[in-house]
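Q: For a teaching session next week I want to show students how multiple molecules come together into a single three-dimensional assembly. I've collected the sequence lines for a complex. Could you give me the predicted structure tokens for the whole thing so I can convert them for display?
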Amino acid sequence: MSHFTEAGLARWHAREHRREAIFQVVGALVVFTAMLMLAVLLTKILLDGFARLGWDFFAQSSSRFADRAGVKVALVGSFYLMILTALIAVPIGVGAAIYLEEFAKRNWWTRLIEINITNLAGVPSIIYGLLGLQVFVRTLSMDRSLIAGACTLALLILPVIITAAREGLRTVPNSLRYGSLALGATQWQTVRYTVLPVAMPSILTGVILALSRAIGETAPLLVIGAYVYLTRLPEGLTSPFTTLPVQIYDWISRPQAAFHENAAAGIIVLLALLLTLNAAAIYLRNRYQKRLAI
Amino acid sequence: MALKSANSTEVTQAVVRMPTASARKRVRWEERIVRVFLFLCAALSVLTTSAIVFILFSQSLGFFRKASVVEFLTGTEWAPLFNPPAYGVLPLVTGTLLTSLIAMLVAGPMGLLVAVYLSEYASPRLRRVVKPVLEVLAGIPTVVYGYFALTFVTPLLQKFIPGLEGFNALSAGLVMGIMILPTVASLSEDALYAVPNSLRYGSLALGATRFQTTWGVVVPAAMSGISASFILGVARAVGETMIVAIAAGQQANFTFNPLRAVETMTTYIVRIAMGDVSYGSPEYYSLFAVGLLLFLITLALNLISEAVRRRYKGARA
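A: Of course. Below is the structure for the complete assembly, covering every listed component.
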């Protein structure tokens, strides 16, 4: 072949160099484009919504008039819903993780649970909405209430919490377990007094990330019947509720530009909330990593 | 070492408590109760899956008393609320396929290129910047992407494409692609990262360039992991709700024209569920029939993705 002549080899080198250079540029461009998307998205939302942010926006609730509408009820609803979801999902999720990591024997039943959790993580969130609609709203007659929403979201984020908690438990070295057991502690005492305290920061990190997913969820809440127009704060577990993403969706789906402005402002509030949660998670993670490194 | 000092006091407490017979009895009981509780926590996940399957099937029965399965799966008109009603789900399926396809045309190539570039070319410093950006993109709620598609991408595209409707499959699909990009990129990168360096060195030692090594050796070696990430991306696109509900319109058109409004399976569920359906009505049952189809499709995609990944793990060992 021509590769074996001097000129052919030179041509081959030149071509390969060109290819290499072209791919370097293409790859860099694609990475840059992905980052540009984020920048454009954030800029667009800030430009649209920033002017609308003000004290009024936080003090007002749903209204037919765009300039009198605010996020008060939605923000409080999101907050309550997050707390309730955490109260349900965290004990169950961490409990399941402890069972799988510390107690379960390696048999078909354990494998079934594991495969099952993996598959649950892949179920679209809207299917959880249908589950919540039939089980919590209808069968258990919770109606379109805060508690029905919290139960639905808790089931939705359970796989995420279980996986994160298992990873946290796995970072605890076995020497600690053996030490505790050798002192005569039972298995549960070992978990409770030795393993959990060590694993706690990384479990908490996972929990916060799971909750930040729950807070941004819209579809399952729309399906179980979160209210899109609400002027009263939720008073108890059975109160009707709305959340920030649901309120934002309602504003987006209205044709008037003024409501779109509200939506953008609502999105800024939502993103700020998520940023705070993620910052907390990163802080915990870094502190934990430092402690292990010493 | 710091670990020990942080927990030594608690460990001591546990030991000191042991001696008396009654205390020992109590500890045994506590142990048993806790075990049962923990077991129930883990079993709840199995119960959840069973409940999903049971509810989707049992409620769909109500729907299939009215519509035949054949009509459901082959009919090209979807109008369960009209009189006479039409129960062909294909318009919702093509709507879902169309938006997912557009999304994957963005997320597939871009995700792979980002993964390859980050894994094989980028400096550690660039990786430290890009990876958090991808994480942020992955963490943005989908309702935010929906707003972006409707108020930015659609008006922008309308300047270049005259026939583009206000609600259309194209911009919803494109933005959904951006949403899925981090999933595809980070899973593909994991697969590339798992390729042992000996393969790269071998290829480079034979005189191959970095480009040839990357595309001729590393990418093929990671192919099953990359395929798995693509399939998972499709599953996410099929199950995605808010972007299409906001930007793709809510009309069940039987079309593959990306410039038109379409309705996906997820969008239909949201639209009907929001409209105060009465319990036990045909609309109510139709939610679950469409949900069942959606569930089966995403389940199949997830299982395939898992199987592909497992084969790749086996090959490595």
